Amino acid sequence: MSERTPGVPGVVVGVDIGGTKVLAGVVEPDGTVTSTALRTTPGRRVATSQVEDALVEAVLEAAVGRPLAAVGVAAAGFVDSAGERVMFAPHLPWQGEPLRDLLEARLGCRVVLDNDANCAAVAEWTFGAARGAGTALMMTLGTGIGGAVLLGGRVLHGANGMAGEFGHMQVVPQGRSCECGRSGCWEQYSSGNALVRDARALMAEQPSVLEEMCGGNPERITGPMVTAAAEEGDLVARRAFASVGDWLGVGAANLVAALDPERVVIGGGVSAAGDKLLDPARAALARTLVGAEHRTVPALVAAHLGPAAGLVGAAQSARLPRSGAGAEVPVA
Amino acid sequence: MSERTPGVPGVVVGVDIGGTKVLAGVVEPDGTVTSTALRTTPGRRVATSQVEDALVEAVLEAAVGRPLAAVGVAAAGFVDSAGERVMFAPHLPWQGEPLRDLLEARLGCRVVLDNDANCAAVAEWTFGAARGAGTALMMTLGTGIGGAVLLGGRVLHGANGMAGEFGHMQVVPQGRSCECGRSGCWEQYSSGNALVRDARALMAEQPSVLEEMCGGNPERITGPMVTAAAEEGDLVARRAFASVGDWLGVGAANLVAALDPERVVIGGGVSAAGDKLLDPARAALARTLVGAEHRTVPALVAAHLGPAAGLVGAAQSARLPRSGAGAEVPVA
Predict the structure, then answer these.
(1) pLDDT confidence band for B185 (50 / 70 / 90)
(2) What is the CATH number of domain B11-122+309-319?
(3) Contact check, Cβ <8 Å, A329/B151
(4) What is the tens place of the pLDDT at every residue in B105-161?
(5) CATH code for A132-302?
(6) b/e A299-328 (16+ beta carbons within 10 angstroms → b)
(7) Phi/psi of residue B195, nearest 5 degrees
(8) What DSSP line would sit under B149-160, residue for residue?
(9) Cβ neighbours of B87 in A, within 8 Å
(10) In Å, how far is B38's CA from the nearest CA of chain A?
């Protein structure tokens, strides 16, 4: 699985395309990224071909003239279950165009397309924190919560390619209102946005180094500021992490009850806080999970790969034999 | 899959063993049950061999002297991921004995062991309401909520064999207290017990035929009574079903967000109420599910097979090639 396909010459490139940047890299069979190229994402209100141009340019620059064996694309949006199209993305212009085929025609090689959280999960299973797990869950805490279900190292895509949308599971009836139009969604309690919101609210209750950090304007507080403050031992920041971590564990317990995974991997920007986030999450998981006396409570661990996880996983998927489009294969 | 294994003579028997009875039946390749036998479960505080005796007797009586090709056992308890042992069951004495091997030695044929909800799901996938679905979820509403995750017709067992324990997912923080020792568990809001509890509470608010049915003693109200009252148009009973159905849809939406199944099948005693339960569940699913504008909302349907689903599914699993013990095979 980690060896280059015999007889196929050239390099495998992974590309991560988000709302602000396009990052491409040559990925070696051992997961090492040896050559990268960066472009700015042209935006959402442009012709789709402009975004495809940026993507193709980044791939070719990363390859530095070497032939392409395969390209994997990790996109920040909903990808259909067949891996052919980006159906919708909040910061990209695609709306169901046959993107995979368009890119195969332009790049002259096999292209594999998947959601960025799914790609990151594949990377963690192959090279990182989920390595070798029979069943694993990955949650990516950034602005919201992304996620993926891994079964034997393969991502469960589901009927619409939308499996793993953990962030909008309802954890509080009539709870905090969510950008999705509903309320009480998990990511309103456990995410980068939730962390910042909690810190702002707690600043009203006790002094905090965050006041200085934000220049007296709480609207300027960011997730990394809260992480830095927590590292300094700031109580407001620590309480914000305790709350976000507790909710992370409560939501994880629900998914563990349903899927009984061997491991739960936490990635995304917020996970940079490490045990300040994960310790309260572990406590809440053990407290909330049913049947803990009759089971092994799964390890809840930080992702190993950093921001390159998406492109590494996309390249890894491009290296693997393609699965039947949308088909779910039997599991034990 | 529905043909008898060539060269293997004899009948395939399924057995469902619950807290009160042991029901065995010869199951034909098309799912028909042609001969049954019933025993009383000896209880929880007896030697395990007594329960095994009852099980073996029921199997042999159902087979009526014909040789056994294979036997499938559906048990009301936690079965380990290898399908070898009942680790714990609230109404059965087993606690991790090598039950599958013991039964194989006594019956002289291949034995397959699984949790009863998992077996019912296999039966629904092969012969019933989940037939042919790529990914499907089954929820069994009885006293509590049992469940199963079906991927390509195979049950996801998980690391401890405990996948599908949907009933104890937390839906209300600090909510109704649960027998499991935690609070706010889904089955406290959507199950046979919840239905009866809701009906009792609503009787204090308005008149109901349930008062006569229970002889003036609300403690005597049962789930089937509430179903009968709802069929008569009783408003208390209808409101109880509306609440249980609404919570069924809310919880289902969480699982659909996570797993994106093609179909959601509702079985168990409470599902006998049909659309009185399912219509409010469908409305809540559509209302609560994220991204409904970018996806097909899965059909939420009643199970087709009745109380025999467990033994039929157990027999079907016994007919199939055994999967690797505990191994999860890649999915698309």
Answers:
(1) very high
(2) 3.30.420.40
(3) yes
(4) 999 999 999 999 999 999 999 999 999 899 999 999 998 999 999 999 899 999 999
(5) 3.30.420.40
(6) ebbbbebeebbbbbbbbbbbbbeebeebeb
(7) -60, -45
(8) EEETTEEP--TT
(9) 294
(10) 30
Q: Which residues pair with B33 in a beta bridge?
A: B27
Give Cα B201 distance to the centre of its chain.
Answer: 27
The dotted CATH code for B131-302 is 3.30.420.40
Closest among B115, B130, B54, B72 to B312, alpha carbons compared? B72
Nearest CA to A167 out of A85, A277, A81, A252 is that of A252
Q: How do the domains of chain B map onto residue ranges?
A: 11-122+309-319, 131-302
Using only the alpha carbons of chain A, give its radius of gyration. Answer: 20
Q: Locate the chain A residue with the closest alpha carbon to B139.
A: A258
Structure tokens at A55: 């993507």
**Residue B286 in contact with partner chain A when CB distance is under 8 A:** no
> What would the mean pLDDT of A37-60 be, rounded to a whole number?
95
Same fold, A11-122+309-319 and A132-302: yes
The torsion angles phi and psi of B79, rounded to 5 degrees, stand at: -105, 140
Residues from chain B that touch A174, judged by Cβ atoms under 8 A, are none
Set of chain B residues whose Cβ sits within 8 Å of the Cβ of A259: 149, 156, 158, 163, 258
